[in-house]
Amino acid sequence: MDEKLRKQLEIAATKVRMGVIEGVYNAKAGHPGGSLSVADTLTYLYMHRMHVDPNEPDMPSRDRLVLSKGHTAPALYSVLAQRGFFPAEELKTLRKQGSRLQGHPAMGKVPGVDMSTGSLGQGISAACGMALSGKISCDIYKVYAILGDGEIQEGQVWEAAMFAAHYKLDNLVAVVDNNGLQIDGKISDVMSPYPIDQKFEAFGWHVININGHDFNEIEKAFNEAETVTGKPTVIIQRSTKGKGVSFMENQVGWHGKAPNDEEYAKAMEELKAHLAELEK
Amino acid sequence: MEKKATRDSYGEALVMLAEKRPDLIVLDADLAAATKTGTFKKEFPEKHYDCGIAEANMMGVAAGIATTGKLVFASSFAMFAAGRAFEIVRNSIGYPHLNVKIGATHAGISVGEDGASHQCNEDIALMRTIPGMTVINPADDTEAKAAVLAMADYVGPTYMRFGRLAAPIFNDPATYKFEVGKGVQLKDGKDITIIATGLMVSEALEAAKALAEQGVDARAINIHTIKPIDRDIIIKAAKETGKIVTVEEHSVIGGLGSAVADVVTEECPVPVIKIGVKDVFGHSGPAPALLKEFGLCAENIVAVTKAAVGK
Q: Is B55 a catalytic residue?
């Protein structure tokens, strides 16, 4: 990836993180930790890779993204707003009564949301359905499914993993956001899903391990996925929960908690400083 | 009277539908031979996808296919389609109001020898609580086929219930017209109304005829659409006959009887006596004998109805 693009994406991702904090702060609830850990990948996909058109959000030929870890909706909304699907100002209405921005993504309500998710383990199945449908009618769109590392404790994920490999869904790329934390603690303490890569490999997937906060690695992984035929690809990204806001990083307590006034100010100050640094 | 299981009608209707709808996709979960989607698979193997023994994923896959605009039917036994996969049906199909048709076979006690683990008497209750879900329970071959073809043209999530046991074909395919949400009055009467659904409709009709010979003028109504239910036909029956007996091969909790009572208590309170599975699990046995044992037969409908009118 050339340096200019990388910098553009860094800037966009920082703005996405600011949108996450803005939304969750105004909602006084929501999930900042996992939103921040997946922000770089969502930024890369929507701002650079995916074939989508904010003016025609339901375009049949569009690439689709299913946020299977639906509780990180603040990140999805923030990146959709930045891509122009709706005004960024609306992020302040997150989770509020009467807002389109539901606590978890709701298709049909928010332009750009391809599937309703929130109940963990379900989005990946819907993504399989979209990918299978594309295969049946020889469409060239891609389907991306974003999973949490805690989420893959759900049995349905592995039903879907079997299905995707069985039907050779090479138009499907799943991302496992491996930030290592879930509500009750470390995933390795609560119910270890490790080794994640070997599990997917055994299920017949092409597996790529990357650093989820390095745009060069992210791009390389999606490029590699593009070349794989006859099987689905999973990108397992090591990531930092709360990435970008120092006091949220690797803190399980920030899984599902909103910052107070002081924390909000501090978080925004950090992100703004980072943005200024990037824009220098 | 000729008989056929409505699961057979389902499989045959899917074949008929494929001619009309090139976008049709049928999913099954390792039960194609039993749900009769195998009939469809034989004709259109390239449009039939087996999901293996994984009903939760199948419902999610169906939802994903539906987002791309294709017509999709997902099939399994009622126990697994409505029971095991309930939350996926609710959140991945119901909440986004996706156009998925769920074809659930082997509903009710008439599953027979497989026993209670497979005798789903709770599916109507589960499915009718999901906002926007249409719930259909056809009574015979004619109605089942017409319902499948009609619901294919309707856009929205639909649960369709089919049976394993051969049921008498009392509707004439030459004249029968399926209208979603419309009850069908099969026999007029002024003393009491028997409202039945699915496999129990032909039993109710037989009971109404027997009652006429015994001096009870019972109205008989077939409710093939449990949701949205035909409020008008129920209110009219309550007003004109003053008493209602409901009959269903389903728990008395949450099914047809409850749906009828919901309407009656709001609009025109009259006694509603429910014939169904009385909050117990079933057990193994031949289907016809089980139906008798659980009171799901014309004989018991006659007895209950007579008692209700004091005869």
A: yes
